[in-house]
Amino acid sequence: MKIVHSVHILPDAVRLDGVALPVEEQGAELLSALYRAYVKDYPKFFKMDLLSKLGVIATELLVKDEPGRFTPREDRAVLLLSHSGPLCDDRNYQKTISGDDYFPSPALFVYTLANIVTGEIAIRNKYEGDTTAYGLEAFDPAQLVAVVRDAFEDRVTTSAICGWAECIDAGNFEALLLLVEQDAPEGRPFTVQTLEEIKKA
Amino acid sequence: MKQKVYAVAGNILSPLGFTAEENFRAVVEGRSGVAPQEGTFGIPEPFCASLFDRGQVAEYAAAEGITGYNLFETLLILSIRDAVRRAGIDAASSRVAFVISSIKGNVEELGEDESEVPVTVSAGHVAAFFGQNAAPLVVSNACISGLSALIHARRMLLSGQYDYVVVAGAEVQSRFIVSGFQSLKALSPEPCRPFDAERCGLNLGEAAATMVLARAEACPPDCWELVDGATRNDANHISGPSRTGEGSYKALRYVLACCDPEELAFVNVHGTSTLYNDEMESIALHRAGLSDVPLNALKGFFGHTMGAAGILESLISMQAADAGIVPGTLGFGKMGVSYPVNVCAANRTTDKHAFIKLLSGFGGCNAALLFRKGGAR
Questions:
Q1: What is the CATH number of the domain that holds B312?
Q2: Fewer CB atoms < 10 Å away: N or C end of chain A?
Q3: Could you tell me if B134 and B249 lie in one domain?
Q4: Any chain B CB within 8 A of the CB of A21?
């Protein structure tokens, strides 16, 4: 298993395959700026919660140059891990049902499910394979590698968008996402050490 | 040769009983935990749900010496403790892993101590109760969480790092969840009616359920093997099922590679009783060539127990097939889906020893898991 591409997004920095991308905006604005630079034609993006925006943009950077993009495929999994899941969305939805102002918002409620981000990535890219949202006590490269390796036990899965996607609020988020392929001719080894290097860079 | 993964013990904790056997008996006898709710959780509109008597759970927990945990954690601990005792394993061992399944966990803590809200935090408390040093893995994959957890746990065992995996799912209902599903117009004001022509939405339910999994060269003849399972995405819509049943069909196709439909006692479907879900499942089953296989849904007994559903409904299905029964679909009367499917309205008999558990959820995800009795093939 090899890491074909890696991306690391923080509120004030983006690195793609270890190379820093120029960044002028910060926080949620950074994600919008990345959308304008790399996506442009997927207005659904603006309806998404912050966690989905983060996951969709990170994936976009990983696969933007991939040949045959948008052809439906069942062999690519989307496997995301986090500590807080949809906490950011829980807060937003809770506001619509607190106190005397009881106007529960279906649009906000849907995003309080931890796996909507994996669904948004699947919809955008027509990935019809395994999509699973996992939770860990904290970022742990060894557990992350184990979870992804185990998920490749699926007979059909040959590659995955996988990694860590944590979103506390607009000023505090992190995506460390990878495109991992089972039989890639080139790439970095999918190991704890590589993950640590990507995270530290 | 590849090892086999099988269930060694289980527990179900629901308003219908505190063991897997009590819950199965309720299903056979046609008893339901679903009841009309007015003013519950301060929700202005009436709804139906299967909810625990809080006092009864507290009493049981106190008798078991479990205090200082919130309701979500208490349910998980009670359920896991029963299953682990029956399995006779040392739950503290590093050869045992914990996988916890829930959608909203302890969301009621929001506004109190936000750091306690993530399911990962509760899961850590629960695993620590059992003396686990390792952080448990959480699976939160909307309504298919329980099956995703079982499917992943099976793969963890195959990797050889563990001898046992304890898979537990739980859901506690709340103002948060009920208002949310109501805002999506997914809740029925009446007891749900899976696959029925008059169905008008789902009922939510509370439960915890646990399955202890092990691996060996061959599945023991008195145990159920988790033969194989898969999760597939519709890649279509985050809150509406696919019109072609795409992901559900693909998940079914995956497990059907490991069995002949003739072998199946039944397919235990998701059957939430929403218009769209049940229709979508009929399409997926038809496409997969399973129109003639008996199908049943358990939501009429338990409501939709969300993160517990995949484990709970699998445990009921195992006991049913062991007893030679295809449980009836409580609430079903007149066929209400456009593709022909073989819905069991009342309990039927069966002499078959395999079944498929099927679920679908928001985020476009779908899962199927094939179970087969040890020695049946």
A1: 3.40.47.10
A2: C
A3: no
A4: no
- The answer to whether residue B137 neighbours chain A at the CB level (below 8 Å) is yes
Q: What is the mean pLDDT of residues B366-377?
A: 93
pLDDT for B224-271, tens place per residue?
999 999 999 999 999 999 999 999 999 999 999 999 999 999 999 999
Test A113 with B119 for CB contact under 8 angstroms: no
Question: In terms of residue numbers, what domain contains B68?
Answer: 4-216
* Contact between A5 and A62 (Cβ < 8 Å): yes
Whole-model pTM: value is: 0.98
Q: How many structural domains compose chain B? A: 2
Q: What's the structural domain count of chain A?
A: 1
> Which CATH number do you get for residue A79?
3.40.47.10
Contacts of B213 in chain A (CB under 8 A): none
